[in-house]
Predict the structure.
Amino acid sequence: MDIGGCLGTAALAALDWVFPLRCASCDAPGESPFCGVCAETLIALPPGCPVCGAPADDEVLAALRPRRCLHCRQRAPPFAQASAPYLHGGALAEAIHRLKYERREDLARPLGLLFEACARPRADVLAPVPLHLSRLRERGFDQAALLASEAGKRFALPVEHLLLRVRPTGQQVGRDRVARERNVRDAFAVRGHVMARRICLLDDVLTTGATASAAAQALLAAGAARVEVRTLARAP
Ligand SMILES: [Zn+2]
Ligand SMILES: [Zn+2]
């Protein structure tokens, strides 16, 4: 339900009073999603690989464009393109950590505004990258699902839960690229109708792209026409 669409201005003002705007990173009142100080730490995704979005440094950028990064040239990822509005760091990393690990699911809504700064995917539907049921029980909510519903409003796209994480994969943090790929291989199963559809996966952070690749692989194997990836942040 779109609360803003159902309430009058006075009711919205009352809502602001009950739930005042606060910075998603430091809780400073009055500004959302970030206060001025925290907003300074946001870094828009710099130019880089046209496939996976990996930032390229300035010297090699001219030579690189429009070429793909080394990883994508060695082995193209199954998704057509991955993009995010900002690099993972500063206040955004802090806010994402609070969302996931400090039971701050209320932050999904303000953080979802950041998808405004991201190109609209060439897709028919958004599909969140799901948690395994055991992790969902532990956390109580699925941050990718919450972010997908906010991104759906920004991109005017429907959200469908087209994937299941069929085995627990534990933390990817601390594993290298190869270990990450091994860890998430065959971790996803498709549920629902994906045949010939263009699907955009939605998640909080893209690091090596191993999880997104495994999810994209499952969708393509089930007949999806094209898979893109959007995350709130991308590892630098
Ligand atoms: Zn702040
Ligand atoms: Zn790349």
